[in-house]
Design goal:
heterodimer; A: 371 residues; alpha/beta; Rossmann fold; 8-stranded mixed sheet; 8 strands; globular; B: 324 residues; 4-stranded mixed sheet; 3-stranded parallel sheet; 12 helices; 51% helix; disordered C terminus
Chain lengths: 371, 324
């Protein structure tokens, strides 16, 4: 096999030195596995590493001992010098903790936690999962038990949801409608209240009165907490855009996925966030340096013979490899000077520590890993 | 059409739309997430809320139109309010972001707006077949569960009526079926099986055939040693070529074995017929590839022993597996 690129030391350095690594990319490209591999390598290097996963495939969760886990980190034992911890994000309890933290009294917290509108926020409001992933990151960052935090991000279609979500939620809590709803208790001008009543009556006509009542109760209960939430969100955003947070972009070499990754990279660039490494999972191997067209032609002249089939097969994979490299070219330039790491199709899906170790061999140079 | 991200749902949607059109059915593809490559597959510029023709009918093959449009909750809401005599409030409600507040108060309201619009299009007879490219993966379940959730949360009003109408649509196998798309790989197959049972049990919607996308096609000689094959063909190999041919053949055989294992597992665990589409070793997919996949899908559909929709996941005595 030709054209297998030995990995550079860049990711190894990152895992050795970074405080926070955020794995980002679209769904189904092996982000969770990559995050686990990076944290495991950190533990191998003697660090106290924790990986925050969002929605691991069940067998990977089993391998990491994550089955039935709560929202707090649990330790995974293994033959490494440092420590490996893992947790599975629970959006709702992370949000609950945040409410309890910011409430002015236990009664206020209780009132909010019991509200139906509030219970819907964690499931229905877009961006909540992203926000809570980042909130969890902030919480772990404050915790001195860990010196390397690796986070998997939810599979969103919008590249920067996890950056924008904190802002979006505070904007939501600060919504004009919210102001209108709580206006009567604040004694704002009667005209505004009248307009609000008309508006709410119309909304009630469409969705039913109790839905609106739930919302009003929630916003009233929440009053006074917006400031705390806003300050916290600002700190989370600061942390994400700070130097000690490194972003790793994960993708697969298929055209549509690469297009999404390119969009991600562009948006990160616009936000002045450098991509520190590009990891491409599930690369088809390069078997031949011959041009796909020439191999295809050779197969054609040999027609239906066994040798023709063998050449057709070689042509197929030469074509796929050429496609994949062509798809990746623009993206590689976009993230330059970030190094590109190619992980081939593995013999089976990764769901144990051996599988993670196999991926690691393609991300970290062998000669520098010893010890 | 539902399936995890990255399984080629858009390609499959395009192919099945083209297959239906080849059977003379006017087909409308509805996208809800935007930014897909559907238009590119037909060699057309991107489309939006307004309906476009992706593949015009009336050619020598006697096919009908494949059309497409996008639906967004905001647009559907504006249209809905205007249709219900709330013209004045419609823009304000949509543009102020108030829909987010309302959608949080009544989860699923965005989904019901989309599904309500789909139901309206179905009732209006705008096309013989509507293919809805549903949100990816787990979202498909909450998307389709939204009418039942809303019926629980909202006791009166036009949205409740809307939810009931959508539920009637989802409950009727003659009007609506879900086709799940997967790759012949472990994790996507696991997710598909879970989604299938969840859709049948929690949503009560009928499942059509499962579409397995990306199967490596058979080739002759994959098990033959290149030197032996060269001898048989009276041909000579270039230096090093034997090893390349051998390694590539080994790789394909191995991948095909893994795919066969996953197909067998899928057949065993989910008694639904299967439509199997090949992996295409080409640079960029275009209309001719969509047509090729459409013909493959049609051949599979014709070979189905049972009509789509008559199979139930949990039905006793249902025949396991596909037609092969």
């Amino acid at each position: 096999m030709s054209a297998t690129h030995p990995p550079t030391a860049a990711l190894l350095q990152l895992v050795r030195d970074a405080r926070i690594i955020v794995c980002t990319g679209s769904g189904g490209v092996g982000k969770t596995t990559t995050a686990a591999v990076l944290a495991l390598e950190g533990a191998r290097l003697g660090r106290r590493a924790v990986v925050v996963t969002i929605d691991p495939a069940r067998r990977l969760a089993d391998a990491l001992g994550l089955e039935g886990l709560t929202n707090t980190a649990s330790r995974i034992d293994g033959p490494w010098r440092g420590e490996l911890w893992a947790l599975m994000l629970d959006t709702k309890s992370t949000f609950d903790d945040l409410v309890v933290k910011h409430a002015e009294s236990p009664e206020q917290a209780e009132g909010i936690l019991a509200n139906r509108f509030y219970r819907n926020i964690s499931g229905a409001l877009s961006g909540t999962q992203e926000y809570m992933a980042m909130e969890k990151l902030y919480e772990l960052h404050e915790d001195t038990d860990f010196d390397l935090i690796v986070v998997d991000t939810p599979p969103t279609r919008n590249a920067l949801d996890f950056l924008e979500a904190p802002r979006r939620l505070t904007h939501f809590l600060d919504h004009k409608l919210f102001r209108i709803i709580i206006a009567p208790t604040r004694g704002v001008l009667r005209a505004a209240t009248y307009a609000a009543q008309t508006f709410l009556r119309t909304v009630s006509r469409v969705v039913g009165g109790e839905v609106v009542d739930d919302a009003i109760t929630f916003f009233r209960a929440f009053e006074g907490m917006e400031q705390g939430f806003k300050e916290r969100a600002a700190k989370v955003i600061d942390l994400l855009t700070h130097d000690e947070t490194s972003f790793v972009l994960v993708t697969a070499p298929r055209r549509d996925v690469v297009e999404e990754a390119t969009y991600f990279a562009t948006r990160l660039g616009e936000a002045d966030i450098p991509v520190r490494a590009l990891i491409v999972n599930r690369m088809h191997p390069h078997f031949s340096s011959a041009a796909p067209g020439a191999l295809r032609e050779r197969a054609r002249t040999l027609d239906r013979s066994d040798l023709g089939g063998l050449y057709a097969n070689l042509a197929d994979f030469a074509q796929v490899a050429a496609n994949e490299e062509a798809h990746l070219q623009g993206l590689s330039q976009r993230v330059a000077p970030a190094p590109v790491f190619r992980v081939p199709f593995l013999r089976s899906d990764v769901h144990d520590l051996d599988g993670l170790a196999e991926v690691a061999r393609h991300l970290f140079p062998h000669d520098l890993r010893a010890g | 059409m539902a399936g995890k991200g990255g399984v080629g749902k858009t390609t499959v949607s395009a192919s099945l739309a083209r297959a239906a059109a080849r059977c003379g059915l006017t087909t409308l593809v509805i996208e809800v997430e935007g930014k897909s490559g559907l238009a590119t597959l037909f060699g057309q510029p991107p489309f939006d809320y307004d309906e476009v023709v992706l593949s015009p009918g009336g050619g020598p093959d006697g096919a009908s139109d494949v059309r497409a449009r996008t639906l967004t909750p905001d647009d559907a809401l504006i249209e809905y309010l205007e249709d219900h005599g709330m013209h004045r409030i419609s823009r304000r409600l949509a543009s102020s972001g108030a829909l987010d507040v309302v959608a949080t108060a009544a989860p699923g309201i965005k989904d019901i707006l989309i599904l309500g619009k789909v139901k309206q299009l179905e009732r209006s007879g705008t096309a013989d077949l509507i293919l809805l490219d549903a949100p990816a993966a787990g979202h498909a379940i909450s998307f389709l569960r939204s009418p039942r959730g809303l019926l629980d949360a909202v006791s009166v009003g036009p949205i409740r009526t809307q939810a009931q109408d959508v539920l009637d649509l989802l409950d009727d196998p003659a009007r609506c079926q879900v086709l799940l798309v997967t790759l012949p790989e472990e994790t996507p197959v696991n997710e598909l099986i879970e989604t299938a049972y969840s859709l049948e049990e929690d949503v009560g919607v009928s499942l059509g055939p499962v579409v397995v996308n990306g199967l490596y096609p058979e080739l002759p000689g994959l098990g033959t040693d290149p030197e032996v094959a060269a001898g048989a063909a009276g041909a000579h190999l270039l230096p090093g070529e034997g090893a390349e041919l051998r390694a590539a053949a080994q790789f394909r055989r191995h991948r095909m074995e893994l795919q066969a294992e996953q197909l067998a597992r899928l057949s065993g665990e989910l008694p639904l017929p299967q439509i199997r589409l090949p992996f295409l070793f080409t640079a960029d997919l275009g209309p001719e590839h969509v047509d090729l996949l459409a013909r493959t899908a049609l051949a599979d559909i014709e070979a189905l022993t049972e009509l789509p929709g008559t199979a139930a996941v949990g039905a006793p005595g249902a025949e396991p597996g596909g037609a092969r």
